[in-house]
Amino acid sequence: MSNGTATINARNITDKEFFYGHKACAGCGGSLAVRLILKVLGERTFTVIPAGCMSAVGFIYPQMCFLNNAIISTFPGTASMLSGIAAAAKALGLKDYHVVGIAGDGGTADIGLQALSGAIDRRDRIIYICYDNEAYMNTGIQKSGLTPFGARTTTTPAGDNIPGTVTQKKNMFEIVAAHGIDYAATASIGYIQDFINKVQKASRVEGTSYIHVFAPCPTGWGIPEDSTIDIAKEVVDCGLWYLAEFEQGEFILNKNPKEFSPVEEYLKKQSRFKHLSCEDINTIISSRDKKWEKIRKAWKIK
Amino acid sequence: MIEIRWHGRGGQGSFTASKLLGASAALYGGKYALAFPSFGPERRGAPVLAFTKIDDKKINDRSEIKKCDYIVVLDETLFHESFFNDLKDNGSIIVNSADSKAYSSYDKTKIKTVDATSIALEILGKPITNTAMLGALLAVSDIVRLDALKKGMESFMKGSLLEKNIEVVERIFFRMKGESL
Amino acid sequence: MNRPLLRKYEKPKHINDYPVGPCFEAGYLVTENSGWRTKKPVVVKDLCIGCFYCYMCCPEGVILRKEKLIDIDYAFCKGCGICAKVCPKKAINMEREGGKDGI
Amino acid sequence: MGYKAFLSGNEAVAEGVRLSKPHVIAAYPITPQTVVVERLAEMVEKGSLKSEFLHVESEHSALSACMGASSIGARTFTATSSQGLLYMAECLHYASGGRFPIVMMNANRSLALPWSIYGDHRDSMSLLDSGWIQVYAEDAQESLDMVIQSYAIAENLKVLTPVMLNLDGFVLTHTYELVDVPSEEEVDKFLPPFDTPYKMDLENPKNMGFSSSPADNMEFKYQQHKAVLDARRVIKEVDEAFGKAFGRSYGGLVDAYQCEDADFILVSLGSTTGTVRTVVDELREEGIKAGLVKIRFMRPFPEEEIVQLVRNTKAVGVIDRDISFGYEGTVFTNVNSALAKADLQLPKLNFIAGLGGRDISKEDIREAFFDLIEASEGKKKERVKFLSLGVEIYE
Question: Of B49, B61, B149, B157, which to mutate for an interface test with D (greatest number of D Cβ within 10 Å)?
Answer without folding.
Answer: B61
